[in-house]
Amino acid sequence: MTDWGSVFRPDTPLLEIVARGSVMYLSLFVLLRVILKRESGTTGVTNLLVIVLLADAAQNGMADDYRSVTDGVLLVAVIIGWSYLLDVLAYWWPAAARVIRPNSLVLVQDGRILRRNLRREFITDEELHSELREQGIADLSEVREVRMEPDGQFSVIPAGGDKPRKKSRRGPAG
Q: Model pTM?
């Protein structure tokens, strides 16, 4: 017979669940923001992080890795809470927004490659030219500006045009 009390009674200290969820969320957020910005594609890093952590946290609560549903629900709430709090901070505090939602990075300006910015994101000349060719740009002289957006996409503003073209990143070439 099922002991319904153990299903809902937490078997892990609640503060420990909050601490573990907070440390994991914030650690992964920083690592993904710093390291995988370019590979994130069209799904924002924060959204990807929340999905992965929620899936794991929910799985733990449902698969009896926790003995209590309350443990899993609390961990899911902590993860959603951090995501919400970071969005609120970015909205109301410009200094936090620069860290949480970094600006786009100019890679090409007036047909000239900004090598320092390419190195900063580990983008090779071949990767840049490949992105331009996929958008129908054969020569850098045809480009006013190329930016890598915060979500890893490339935006291209052709020379003599104001309408940007946007192409999603699919990850590193290989």
A: 0.56
